[in-house]
Amino acid sequence: MGRYLLRRLGFALLLVFVVSSSALLLTQLAPGDITSDIALGVDAETRERMRVELGLDRPIAVQYWSWLSGVARLDFGRSLLYSRPVTTLLSERALNTAVLATAAILLATLIGLPLGVYSGSRARGLGPAIVRAISVAGLSVPPLVGSLFLVFIAARTGWLPVGGMTSASGVDMAWGAWLADIGSHMPIPVMALALPLAASLERLQSQAIAGANREPFVAASRARGLTQRESIVRHAWPASLRPVLGLYGVMIGSLFSGSFVVEVVTSWPGLGRLMYDALRARDLYLVAGCAASGAVFLALGTLVADVLLAIADPRVRAEGRS
Amino acid sequence: MTRRAALFVLALIVFAVSSPLLAPYEPGRAFRDYLHAPPMRPQLSGVVHPLVLADRLEQRYEADTTRTVPLPWFGAGLDAPVFLLGSDSFGRDVLSRLLYGARTSIGLALMATLGAVTLGALAGAWAGYRGGWIDESVMRVADFVLVLPVIYVVLVLRAVLPLVLPASTVFLLVSWIFVAVGWPFVAKGVRAIVAAERDREYVQAAQSLGAGPARILVHHLIPACAGYLIVQATLLLPAFIIAEATLSFVGLGFPDPVASWGTMLAETANIGSVARFPWTLAPAAAIFAVVLGTNLLTADHDTKNDR
Predict the structure, then answer these.
(1) Residues 6+ positions from A104 with CB-CB distance below 8 Å
(2) Which CATH superfamily groups domain B12-17+94-306?
(3) Per the CB < 8 Å rule, is B288 touching A261?
(4) What top-level class would CATH report for the domain A2-321?
(5) ipTM of the complex
């Protein structure tokens, strides 16, 4: 297990390095730089001075090298757009994205798994059919569509505040009120993210439990006198968990892409939003930093999912060792 | 599954190609007197009451019940346009733009799907057939692409290029970007199938008849993956439609005058306007419908496998 984790960690580091370097170099190759955006009305001489001050006039290789030696000390440079260290910006925003993603995963799990067990353990009937229909519909609501629709409903009815993470007055609120404020801003982005995830979890759990119910050991547990409920909870469900846990690793990726869209639609100040702003302003170091934390986010998420899978299934552990 | 999927895709192509015939107006035609006009409800007799501006500032309209105009396909003049799905902030007909947008969005997604499936099938089959270091390196690259934060990669690749490009260039560019991130999904499965099929008798028979690797791959091994390829295509197609919508939504896809579902949705980013003019959400409904269609195909497939 230790060596397996170490290898994964090495791969993740390589990934972060390649992704952030190529993001930096690609953005550098792009036409224009930060000065063409923030200094629109400025004459050429001032612009040149700005570029010298920001170090943008140096050759690409030199810029890259100085950035890289900073990265080795976990210093991702200064954001040209916000004039703050990239690492502080990133840690703030990454936390916001993590809050969103975690809440979405939890919600999707709480909805998807029980419904999947329910619909999978009954072959026919109205209830499972309704659950299945809702799931297939839910699968077809990508976060972009879902968040636009929810924002529309919220704006129309005024049930929930729309846009951002806190209200404008959020700065001078007491702790409790501040948390409640964030809580009232969360449902829209979280629901938009969670809906397709919950639907795919429900579908997979349903199929997995239907498969597990056909296993001889479940029939044996019924023969020993367990009720259907007991045999599902104690025998069928644990056996069905493996494919379901496997899905979490896949979900991390779509969760990540989804959170970008949802953050842009609902103005949630997360990593995706930051990346978007950085790209539009050609803020090199911020782009590279965002790409790096995106890679970290994905690598970490997949790692957690894999570890869960390894805990649930001894066969995966054995594979990792070989 | 195979036949139904093929029919569904065929229907999408026909629908997308025929948009100029179906659309009542040119997608870029702006009726300046009808900004944000609401959808007009056709009467049972097939005619529509034209709209009269009630309040220019609030963009409020009222139906003039004393007059009628025919539906746009039956000779409604440009002086009294008929908006069956309303109009957008430039006074452009949402229905026409939705239809032309289908051509852009579905066309792009189909192109990208075709490209990704082809590239993935070739790379996967080559890796699986040859084995050894070729297999190893192709699959390493595929694995690497699979763990990338795809959305950031697409964003960076698109943002690197000049933002304002002609629509046809954007079309090609974005579909290439999609192919680049989509092929590994296909390649991994194809490689597994080909590696398993490689030693079967029919392949040996073909080899002993003197068939070269190219012929064996194209005529024998890739056809063996046909079912898998079709399933992958039905998964990639909706993903690419959503990806185009996302890119255009954030302003990194098609430029505004081009009608695509993403550029149309970009208008709904304004919360105040979407609450008052909900018909501008029509492309979201269209995306939902297409994705639902492909999901029903695959769901159908799943339940059959269960039995």
Answers:
(1) A189, A190, A193, A194, A197, A255, A258, A259
(2) MetI-like (1.10.3720.10)
(3) no
(4) mainly alpha
(5) 0.85
